[in-house]
Design goal:
The complex is a heterodimer of chains A (about 300) and B (about 240). Chain A is an alpha+beta fold. Chain A is about 20% helix and about 30% strand. In chain A, strand 11 and strand 12 form a beta hairpin. In chain B, a hairpin with a 2-residue loop joins strand 6 and strand 7. The chains are: A alpha+beta (about 300), B mainly beta (about 240). Strand 18 of chain A pairs antiparallel with strand 3 of chain B.
Chain lengths: ~300, ~240
């Protein structure tokens, strides 16, 4: 019985500690996700902001903190600065004995990534940019164990696979573009087909369409075609298809396909061209129909009145 | 006590056997449909490529497409057979690749002709003896209004010479059919269906129909009647 009480007391004393969960809110100045893609990694104006954090344990009054960025997979817990880690706070700051932190002003992502040895090489798979808050005792000589916070920004520098077998079939003022999924690399999450007017196409009779262009996009993994509208009939166009990953990394553009939009005779046009008499609109026998409808409406009432 | 219970059971028995009151019926029907649009060009030649003028056949070939129809009906008279007044709606669509202008080469653009038939019908079913002989002959007369539209490659309604490729054509239809009362195969299940969801009878039917959908002979309208003089269709009928 005494052992059980001691165990319960022990558990109760641990409960507040277990309830504290460290957290950190990090955001990028571009994009709606928290992933740095290829374009963002090469954007010298990209910044990230640490808006707040919650430490894993309540710091004592008179303690200090620092914020670090690292390419290591975990935050360090030593006084010495490990490799590929930089300090972002520029010295010790007073925790004020507060469990939550005030955040950090916007930091230039490019220079921080360079400082921690992460490059934007396309196709590489770097560790996430990890942000760490460490708490130091009042002497500033010891790291307070268990009172940290950390967060991270993932980097996705992988291009999805390149679409293949692109074709551009003639449509009326349009090109119907189709393609096949990449034979290697990851499957794109969305696709864009771009048509650009060119002066001529070898082996095809068409007109200079320089300056004219159009595009279409589809999302998902099943659809492999789309229609580029607003093109000039008989114009010469080249078409490329690009795949995009979920993090908006673009694939290498597909091989070029060529197409020439052509005026198309649909069923209604053919019917009219051959002298059909129907002109569309409501039926010419509308009056006859209305009278019959009225009869159908009256008939049941007449029938009901009979004994 | 036992006598009272037996009496209660005897009184309850006829009620359990009795049919629920009839309100109307519902059916869905499948058939083939090919409009007789090319009929107005009979004898006319010198169209595209110097051939006969058959715009519908040129685009869509000579085969028909499925026509799906459903109809709700209100029973007006019952006793000496059943007389139903019904309203129905259907759907049929045919698609093909359009022609590149001025030639016979198909493009990659689709064109289609879609029909949505609306029907106001009177149906008489000779179902007096359906519980003994499960075959019920019936006859139907209907007013038809076919809403239709043609589409072009972009998926929108086609237009030509300033005329929009959509409209409605009116007409009439008649049908003679024979319905087989499926309740005959499993009377117990039939009674349960009546008791649980109020379906008095379920029929499998086949019918021969004739329709004239050309705005009652108007010279300004095309002919959306089926291209066969008699069409066959079939489906399921629920009387409730």
């Amino acid at each position: 019985m005494r052992t059980r009480v001691a165990l319960l007391a022990c558990l109760l004393s641990l409960a507040p500690v277990a309830a504290l969960a460290q957290a950190m809110t990090v955001s990028l100045s571009r994009g709606s996700d928290s992933v740095i893609n290829i374009a963002e990694c090469n954007d010298s104006t990209l910044t990230f902001t640490v808006s707040s954090w919650t430490l894993a344990a309540q710091p004592a009054a008179g303690t200090f903190y620092k914020v670090f960025a690292t390419s290591a997979t975990t935050c360090h817990t030593t006084l010495a600065l490990p490799a590929n880690t930089v300090e972002l706070t520029g010295g010790f700051r007073d925790t004020g004995g507060s469990l939550t932190g005030p955040g950090l002003s916007a930091q230039n992502a490019g220079s921080v990534l360079t400082s921690i040895g992460t490059s934007c090489t396309v196709g590489s798979t770097p560790n996430p940019l990890r942000l760490c808050v460490l708490v130091y005792d009042s002497t500033q000589q010891n790291v307070v164990a268990g009172a940290q916070a950390s967060g991270s920004i993932a980097l996705d520098l992988a291009r999805p696979g390149t679409p293949v077998n692109v074709s551009a079939a003639s449509g009326d003022g349009a090109l119907n573009v189709a393609w096949a999924e990449p034979t290697s690399g990851t499957m794109p999450a969305r696709w864009t087909a771009d048509a650009t007017g060119v002066t001529s196409i070898a082996g095809q009779s068409c007109q200079d369409a320089t300056g004219s262009s159009g595009s279409c996009s589809v999302s998902g993994t099943t659809q492999r075609s789309c229609r580029i509208r607003g093109l000039a009939n008989d114009g010469c166009y080249q078409v490329v298809v690009t795949g995009f990953s979920t993090t908006d990394n673009a694939s290498v553009a597909s091989a070029v396909a060529y197409g020439v939009p052509k005026a198309v005779q649909d069923f209604w046009e053919r019917y009219q061209a051959e002298g059909g008499r129907e002109a569309g609109g409501c039926g010419a026998g509308g009056a006859s129909l209305l009278s019959l409808l009225a009869l159908a409406f009256v008939a049941p009432r007449l029938l009901r009145r009979r004994p | 006590m036992k006598k009272a219970l037996a009496l209660a059971l005897l009184l309850a028995a006829p009620a359990a056997q009795a049919e629920s009151p009839r309100w109307g019926s519902f059916h869905f029907k499948l058939g083939s449909y090919r409009p007789n649009i090319d009929a107005e060009f009979e004898g006319k030649a010198g169209c595209t490529g110097g051939a006969d003028c058959t715009p519908y056949a040129d685009l869509f070939g000579k085969g028909g497409s499925m026509l799906y129809q459903v109809e709700f009906a209100r029973t007006l008279l019952s006793g000496a057979g059943t007389l139903d007044l019904g309203f129905g709606v259907g759907w049929s669509s045919k698609s093909a690749k359009g022609f590149i202008e001025g030639g016979t080469t198909r493009s990659s653009d689709d064109t289609s002709f879609r029909v949505l038939p609306l029907t106001l019908s009177l149906t008489y079913r000779l179902d007096l003896y359906a519980r003994t002989v499960p075959l019920v002959p019936y006859a139907r007369l209907a007013l038809e209004r076919y809403q239709w539209w043609a589409t072009s490659g972009g998926g929108g309604t086609a237009s030509a010479n300033g005329l929009s490729g959509s409209g409605a054509t009116n007409g009439w239809s008649g049908a003679l059919g024979l319905a087989f009362l499926l309740d005959f195969l499993d009377p117990t299940l039939a009674r349960e269906m009546d008791r649980d969801i109020g379906i008095n009878g379920t029929y499998l039917f086949v019918e021969a129909g004739k329709a004239k959908v050309n705005d009652f002979g108007s010279r300004k309208s095309w002919d959306l009647s089926p291209d066969k003089s008699v069409t066959w269709s079939g489906g399921l009928l629920f009387v409730f």
